[in-house]
Structure formats: structure tokens, C-alpha cells
User: Fold this.
Amino acid sequence: MNSFGLSLPDYPWEAMAPYLAKASEHPGGAVNLSIGTPVDPTPAVIQDALRAAADSPGYPTVHGTVRLREAIAAWFERRRGVPGLDPKNVMPTVGSKELVAWLPLLLGLKPGDVVVRPKVAYPTYDIGATFAGVTSVATDHLDELDDATRARVRLIWVNSPGNPTGSVRDVESLKAIVAHARELGAVVASDECYAELGWGAWDAQRGGEPCPASWIRAFPAGPTRAFWPCTR
Ligand SMILES: Cc1ncc(COP(=O)(O)O)c(C=O)c1O
Assistant:
């Protein structure tokens, strides 16, 4: 009989279960830093907005409303220092995990193509490669790849600020990635979902500087496409 379904790995956190059980036996229990699921109450402003929008019959558009896309473009200017983003080029998604997992397929990647992801990374970059049947390669420096592998690179994930290491790339290293991607004809996808979590250091309104991860700021013109999954 044919077997169906992708052979996906177990969710990585399941591997932690025995350690969590053991740690929970200690007096006071365990401090669980594994899954970053939100635990704080949903702010009233969000609850109110959701309630107020509950009576919205009709199918939503895939592209979202113009008002939402304009608000996202305005957020990029206000909070990330990225002016001039065209709301037409904004595609809202339900959470960033969906986009991360589907992007290789949506870009039409084919078996043989390579997706590059950071060496220590959020696991969904690999899941996306598995969905599309392409090869995932872990590296933080494209120079480390041999020529045959480099020639097959079609998508490069960057995650700055990064999960789980917290590393933040500077503008020079971002520029190097974009230059490399252009040479290879690859898409750069910048997962910046932690860009707001600098607690002031990345907040211009509190005297900080937006953290350097938005491709438009790092490298204004040219054909490299960038994605900013940002739902935090
Ligand atoms: C690096 C990274 N990208 C994307 C996501 C997905 O976030 P969400 O689907 O909650 O927007 C996470 C969640 O932990 C993450 O750590």
C-alpha cells in the first residue's frame, strides 16, 4: 500500500519532555524557557478592537484591507525607520509561522534547490524546506558553502535578532548577505519578529535606534526581495 503524508520530524519540544519532567521534581518546579507561548493577558486595546470588528460578514481578501496595509507601512516608518514602503507590497499573514513554513513552496522552489537558514535556528525554516521537498543548509556565512551548493541556493533566511541566540547582525553583515544573494539570484527572507523587543535600545521614541535588520535600510535598491514576518 502507498504511504501518504510528509515524513515530518517530531516537534522538537517533545524531546525536552523527559528533562522537563525531571526538573519539575525539584522543589519549586522548573522554569520552562522552551516554548515562547504568550502568557501575559491580552491588552485591553486589542480585546476591544477584536470585539468591535466581530460583526464583519463577507470573505476577507488575501491581501488584507488597504487600511491594514497602510498601517503596517506606517509602522515600518515610525518604528523601524524604513520610509516609503508601498502598501501594495505588504502581505499580511496569520502569524509568521505560516509564512515561514510555506515560503519555499510559494516561491516555487523545486527539489535540488537549497534554502539557507542560520546554524542555530527556529525549527520552522527546515519544515518549510521539507514541505517544498528542497534541501535545507545551515550556515551563517555563505562563504562556507562549496560552489556546487552555493549555485543551488534560492532562498536565504536571516533571523536578526535571532532565536534562540539573541544575536543581532550589523549593517555590514546584512549588506554582505544581500550582495551574495544578488550574485546567486536568491531571495533573502528577513525574519524580524523580535525587532521590537529591545526594551528601549531599539526604540527611537525612547532615544534608541531601530535594530539594523530591515533590508530597505541596509540596502535600498535592487532586485533582492525581502520579507518581514513580524507579528510580535
Ligand atoms: C524566529 C521566529 N520566527 C517566527 C516565529 C513564529 O511566530 P508567530 O507564528 O507567533 O508569529 C517564531 C516563534 O517562536 C520565531 O521564534
Summary: The CA atoms of residues 14 and 97 lie 18 Å apart. Strands lie at 114-117, 135-138, 153-158, 187-190. The pocket of pyridoxal-5'-phosphate is lined by residues 36, 95-97, 100, 122, 159, 163, 191, 193, 229, 231 (CB under 6 Å). Residues 61-92 form one domain.
